[in-house]
């Protein structure tokens, strides 16, 4: 096992914070989210002797008299469930065969991270706990595991039974690292090339990377001439990834799906890229055999990354077409620097303005107004990832020396922009420096409007008119209804925008007795 892998497994299993489960629920035997290949047993009663006996029937609420039945009547038989991703397990449900004759009356439970090293669930005296099983063949029994255990694999050991050791099971708990991450619209997808599989017959299938989410009905398709096609998913902040899933092209007359693919992953599109490997070898994933069935792979070696690329290596049809998903542990709480939640409960997405070069068209000295503070490089404070609303952490825009003050950030390259979140300070609640409070408070009340522009043109001059035109306008917020005086202002662009430079212009109210106005930008965050 590589060092990196051990570190990740430790991250997955030892961080108690990740295991704060607010809710314990059935983990997928009943719903069949746990597929038949994830269930195995020490032995099974041959299907040809009893066709209602199969490991795949070891599911609570299974129909008829279906169940898993051990081959032998022995107290050392077990049925094993691979949960795919580590779970915190707080209980189990068990049921007999519902045939009036066969059920398990007592059992033990063991669990494992790797299906190799096993531990038993113990009782308060540190002995293997003997769970009371069922009392008839059909009623469902629930047993708590008082101190939840963490594992990916779970075994039920049949210790005693009535008739025959036959059972149905379900596992209760939570899996914080089995959440879908490649969800539209947050996860961004791109590809080496794109093509519509057949424009004339299926004009609704775009074949673009945007159609590659598992939730769509189409798929992404590469061009036929693409020698090394790939599909890339950006999950946002570097995240522990535990599984991938693929589907074929849905609504299309012809058959198109990927049968084999490789994966590589990185934190930046410029690399370094790592090939996903198991036991030291690059791993080739076997994928789909039809249009609609989702095929999922759980990683034996979870990894942490922001970008994941699928490289189709073999496919059905003239070009590779696929839908893809990624699963892992989404971030809870505050996003790491460089990412933001646009709405309170939305996932962390990249703040494309973070740490970028910024500029204000106003080179005045702030000393007179803000005491000891010197204004050098102050434009940068709006993109330093620090939302602290102390004025010393913020950028000030005002009209002392320019009539049209604006702040600008260079995003580095032309990029789509969907909106901007601005954290402001309103001159209130400042613990120190009360004179600052009063003057700034008035200046800020003179502010009438903040307008956001996106342009491919760089302006370091006072000629803001060239930028401040309708076609470059993303959106604005005004003092009407106090919208401008919120701590956090969200401006969603009125139309899709694309550009390298983002501008914020401040305007004052004409009818105030003082014509001096200020806007204090503590942080400006932009998202695609
Ligand atoms: C990505 O960055 C995280 C730290 O945020 C690091 O733990 C991880 O190993 C990196 N992954 C790759 C693929 O470089
Ligand atoms: C990943 O796999 C590709 C194709 O097999 C290979 O060319 C490349 O060198 C590999 N990268 C690493 C980092 O091993
Ligand atoms: C995919 O992985 C296989 C090994 O399983 C390797 O032979 C092949 O070169 C890889 N292809 C790409 C495109 O990375
Ligand atoms: C904000 O910055 C000020 C001055 O640097 C500091 O005293 C204060 O503790 C900071 N507040 C937070 C919430 O970090």
Automatic annotation (TrEMBL):
Lineage per the UniProt record:
Eukaryota, Metazoa, Spiralia, Lophotrochozoa, Annelida
Key words, A-Z: Signal
According to the record, the signal peptide region is: 1-18
Source organism, top-level taxon: Eukaryota
Which PROSITE patterns does the record associate with it? FA58C_1, FA58C_2, FA58C_3
Q: Where is the composition biased (Polar residues)?
A: 189-207
UniProt-listed PANTHER family? F5_8 TYPE C DOMAIN-CONTAINING PROTEIN, MULTICOPPER OXIDASE-RELATED
Does the keyword section mention Signal? Answer: yes
What InterPro entries would the database entry show?
A: FA58C, Galactose-bd-like_sf
Cell wall biogenesis/degradation in keyword set: no
Tell me where the transmembrane regions lie: none
Q: What name does the UniProt record give this protein? A: DgyrCDS1859
Annotated region (Disordered), positions in chain: 188-207
Q: Which residues form the F5/8 type C domain?
A: 21-174, 177-329
